[in-house]
Amino acid sequence: MKTIREILQGPFAEWLGHDDWRPWHAFLCAFRGEPMSPYEANLFRKCTGRQSVPDKPYREGWVVVGRKGRKSAIAGALSVYAAVYGQWKRAAGETLRVVVIALSKDQARLVLDYAAAILESRPGLARLIESKDSETIRLRNGVEIACFPNSYRLVRGPTIVCAILDEVAIWWNHELAANPDKEILGALKPAMITQPGSLLIGLSSPYAKKGLLYEKYRDHFGRDDSKVLVWQAPTEVMNPQVDREEIEAAYLDDPMSAAAEFGAQFRDDLQTYVVPDAIEACVERGCYERSPVAATTLALLIPLADPARTP
């Protein structure tokens, strides 16, 4: 199988054009466990909080990048990479799916449009297209790229070789919601279990310190031993062509919002009554029960009635 670098410099080169995609090259090479240049290795350490450069591919990655950081374009590239170059087990007559899931089908179609543009940018790739409509690109190798709204009911059933979760930070995350983000992830995992190399990638600008994206960030960012890659970077790091003056103006207008939208920082001003960081500070993970402590009692203090108000 070709490396992701060979694909970026070969079949995808015409679509990529002459823009500076080096930061995304670094992410993609890290995600696939491929050799990196010194520049890419330094950026990897900066954007992941890790020290050890990976030598094996990841199956799960979460990208926390600011708005206009070209996340949807890379999601389109990943969908074509998985659909065309993945080596998947396929039974006769079986259709394998690369699914792009977003808050709505219209939003998911943005990624599908990038995938179509990549496939049509080169005659050899274009010949792989068997059919195409507004929601699906079906390839002659039995793989289709399809877009879905974030419904755990709709992603059940077909074998999924790659799942791309777009702007996952703004999905519903309350457990009583109709389609909570964790339920969607729970529905995806069994559909991917028969494909050992299947890929799961979530891409989003951050929002509040809650939900699936924040939990993945909290649990895996900066951990060299984790098998889940979390990549966090401001817009201007991942998209050097962005207008920095516009970003500076956004910070002047609303610093808190701009820090999330362009700085890729989770917001502290969108919390419940007790903020998650305060709860985390009181929790020892992995501890489910404590033994009694000698000479320690629990005192229940009941306020006495105010004598001045006693009838």
Strand order of the largest sheet: 3-4-5-2-6-7-1-8
Average per-residue pLDDT, rounded, comes to 88
Distance from N terminus to C terminus (CA atoms, Å) equals: 87 Å
Helix content: 25-40%
Number of folding domains? 1
CATH C-level class is: Alpha Beta
CA gyration radius, whole angstroms: 23 Å
What can be said about the biggest beta sheet? 8 strands, mixed
CATH architecture: 3-Layer(aba) Sandwich
Share in β-strands: 15-25%
Number of helices: 13
The structure class reads: alpha/beta
CATH evolutionary superfamily: P-loop containing nucleotide triphosphate hydrolases
Query: Topology as H/E string?
Result: HHHHEHEHHEEEEHEHEHHHH
> Shape, please?
globular
Q: Which residues sit in consecutive blocks of at least 5 with pLDDT less than 50?
A: none
Predict the CATH topology: Rossmann fold
Q: Quick one: how many beta strands?
A: 8
Summary of the model, kept short:
This protein is of the alpha/beta class and 311 residues long. Helix content is 37%, strand content 15%.
Account of the 3D structure:
With 311 residues, this protein is an alpha/beta fold. It contains 13 helices and eight strands. It has one domain (4-269): Rossmann fold (3-Layer(aba) Sandwich), CATH 3.40.50.300. The protein has helices at 4-9, 13-16, 22-31, 38-48, 71-85, 105-120, 123-126, 181-192, 212-220, 235-238, 244-253, 255-261, 276-281; strands at residues 60-65, 96-102, 129-132, 136-139, 143-149, 159-166, 199-204, 228-233. Strands 3-4-5-2-6-7-1-8 form an eight-stranded mixed beta sheet, sandwiched between helices.
